[in-house]
Write a structure and sequence with these properties.
2 domains; 52% strand; 6-stranded antiparallel beta sheet; Jelly Rolls; mainly beta; 0% helix; 17 strands; globular
């Protein structure tokens, strides 16, 4: 099953700490309570427009990519575009803009429930391994089609129970790929 999610259709909400705006792309279980930490994972894209601390998510892990903008300094370390940054939700993260506002793409997840991999895929040169996991492909740059479904910049595909997909593009296509696997108890 493949479902198209347009970022423009995702509702804007305040960050947990109220210091920024985010668009929630997907959350598990659906209709979970983010502010109380009652979720397994959440994928979102946030606008960072000021030097403020990130929200705390005790017991969770986070992966983040700068999608639009020059970059961020997180606890003094540079986070440049198209680099995956992994950190603990327990960690206090002081965020400083390197220049103007930034739009990021990321996932917050509870490692008790799932294992998450995040990578940047540049097509047509990179390969893509979906396995049987739950996969999300976010179009960071370019356009094309997946199984004849048109996709373009700022759109995300939720892909379940698909081992292989057919991706076509006329030019460069940059995808942010998140693979979520359940942790077996």
């Amino acid at each position: 099953m493949i479902k198209l999610i347009k970022l423009t259709d995702c509702q804007e909400t305040l960050w947990k700490n109220g210091k920024g705006i985010t668009r929630q792309i997907a959350i598990d279980p659906p209709n979970s309570n983010l502010s109380q930490g009652l979720f397994h994972w959440r994928i979102s894209s946030a606008e960072v427009s000021a030097n403020d601390p990130f929200s705390s998510f005790l017991g969770f892990q986070r992966k983040l990519i700068v999608w639009v903008g020059v970059g961020l300094k997180l606890n003094g370390k540079n986070l440049l575009p198209d680099t995956v940054f992994s950190f603990s939700g327990n960690e206090r993260i002081e965020c400083e803009l390197m220049k103007n506002k930034v739009i990021d793409f990321g996932i917050i997840y509870n490692p008790i429930y799932c294992h998450v991999e995040m990578e940047i895929v540049n097509l047509p040169t990179s390969s893509l391994n979906l396995d049987k996991a739950l996969n999300f492909l976010f179009v960071a740059l370019g356009s094309g089609s997946v199984n004849q479904m048109p996709i373009s910049n700022g759109e995300c595909l939720r892909i379940e129970n698909e081992n292989q997909i057919d991706i076509k593009t006329d030019g460069p296509l940059k995808l942010y790929h998140i693979k979520i696997s359940k942790v077996h108890s």
